[in-house]
Amino acid sequence: MNRTSKLARLICLLIVLGAFFCFVAGIEWRQAEAQATNGRIAFTSDSTIYTINPDGSGITQLTPSGSGTFDRLPAWSPDGTKIAFGRTTFQISAPEIYVMNADGSNQTRITNNSASDRQPAWSPDGAKIAFVSNRDGNDEIYVMNVDGSNQTRLTNNPAFDFDPAWSPDGTRIAFTSTRDFPGITGNIANGFELYVMNADGTNPVRLTNNSTSDSGPSWSPDGTRIAFTSQRDGLPLVYVMNADGSNQINITQSTTLDSSDPEWAPDGTSIAFTSYNRVGQTNADEIFLMNADGSNIRRITNSSFDEHDLSWQSLVSAPTPTPTPSPTPTPSPTPSFTVSGVVTDAMSKGIADVAMVLLSDVSGTQITFTDQNGNYMFNYAAGVSHSLFVTPTKTGYSFSPQSIGFVSSGSVSGNQTASFTGTPSSSPPPGQVPILLTQENSLRALALDSVTMMSEPFPITGTYNFSADQRTRVSFFVMNLELGAGESSAVITAQAENSLGQLFPMPVEYFGAVPNFGWLKQVVVKLPDQIANSVEVRVSLSVRGTTGNKVIVKVKP
How many domains does the chain have? Predict the structure, then answer.
């Protein structure tokens, strides 16, 4: 039971080379050293402010929940001793700005206006706070002393000006504005562009120019780059550009997995961000970290929180001890559960060597085989997947049911049972659903260049593929796919979907069993020109009109 294919291991080794692990291990070791000046990350969840260590430990609640207060957008002071934030209460319908100590104590209101005052941002010298207010009829950027005195308007435009972010030297403020789209209607966010101005509000300069939203600037500690959230690829993604607006790049190099709310680490080595579909969510974000070049993405929260509004504490001297008042309990390690069952024939006798596939909407595929008594078992982590489907496959058999699923509006947990009955059959069952295999704990395709045996990113064309058209062919590995008598690969179609939902056919040029591994099939497709600039696409197979799961593939021109 739980016998693993030698081929599957070989493929994994080809995809993830040992040298890469050594390289990453070196990076992580140096990162741990460099993070000595990085403090805690403040964030908002359900209108409550929390802080957390960069390794995901020590989640601490700073502001009350369920008490008629609604707190958002925390901002650390440059010395890491205080946090400014916006608060709305049942008595005060418009947000006002407050300041509290790093442990949540001494929450003090510093603005008092019938209009909305929000989005505080400390100046690097700690003497002033920039903020957004609509006290003069529309969102404008203001500045004040840290005690709330001397409130001065910096921008004066009939459009929306918001998201102020001071440059590290204190001479400039980056911000988001719709000022070049007067009278914009409909989705106003399509008019969000990034600008920078002098700290006194003079000389505003536009940095981005898109037909979709660019917002939420965050300066690198050395002042040379700005991270921001862009919708230009059809979903929120973290981009980084030079401080003058040049060299705008998608830092995560993904157009299928969202990222937003970027926040630079004080030492400049990392960027924190939030994402929902990296964990299979549609309405709740988790916090991730990545290296400043977009590599080594790792998740640091795994909870019921919906995290937003990130702000990273800078430690000027000795680290501030973890706050102790009313701490939120550290989440327990994620429990593991099983999906198990038995595959029998019509006489209730176990069928051995049935290939079983467990498909998760978040962590991809697992493979195991039934033992001589027809038993099998998978392990899975609770609180991760929103759907799990178990499918048996064996050449010369059909199974009833063809697949068993476990679906939850939250996440699947608990031990599950899924048993099947197999019947000898010379033809594949109607409605057979092909399952593309993925890399371990991932939605990324288990795929190789069919000639070079290299893994992604796949170029659309190349000089080493031995084909007259110099087009790249990619081998995908698939299960639960059989052809009937007289059928050819013409019944199989492949398609790639980009971040805008556009579909592009991928010609299928070969289908067959992997030698000595009859349960594993190989499909070779030719990459179409139209996806060359897509960065990533989701690939799926259809057989006789039935479409299977989608896997992520990285491509390049």
Answer: 3
Q: Which residues pair with 145 in a beta bridge?
A: 128
Give yes or no: residues 254 and 397 share one domain.
Answer: no
Helix-then-strand count for the chain, H and E: 2, 44
Each residue of 462-478: pLDDT tens digit? 877 677 888 899 999 99
What is the longest distance spanned by two Cα atoms in the chain?
86
Residues 6 or more apart in contact with residue 454 via CB below 8 angstroms: 448
Residue 544 near residue 432 (C-beta atoms within 8 A): yes
Burial class (CB in 10 A: 0-12, 13-18, 19+), 352: middle
In a domain, 401, yes or no: yes
Q: How many CB atoms lie within 10 A of CB 399?
A: 20
Return the higher-pLDDT residue of 2 and 84.
84
Q: Which two tokens stand for residue 408?
A: 């939850």
What amino acid is encoded at 463 in this protein? T
Give tens-digit pLDDT for 411-427: 888 999 999 999 999 88
Pair (69, 41) in one structural domain: yes
Q: Which residue has the tokens 């209009």?
A: 115
The 3-class secondary structure across 346-412, one letter per residue, is: CCCCECCCCEEEEEECCCEEEEEECCCCCEEEEEEECCCCCEEEEEEECCCEEEECCCEEEECCCCC
Structural domain boundaries enclosing 305:
18-314
CA-based nearest residue to 134, from 189, 86, 183: 86
**Contact indicator for 536, 256 with CB cutoff of 8 Å:** yes
Tell me: do 184 and 66 sit in the same domain.
Answer: yes
Query: 438 and 415 share a domain?
Result: no
Residues 421 and 452 in one domain: no
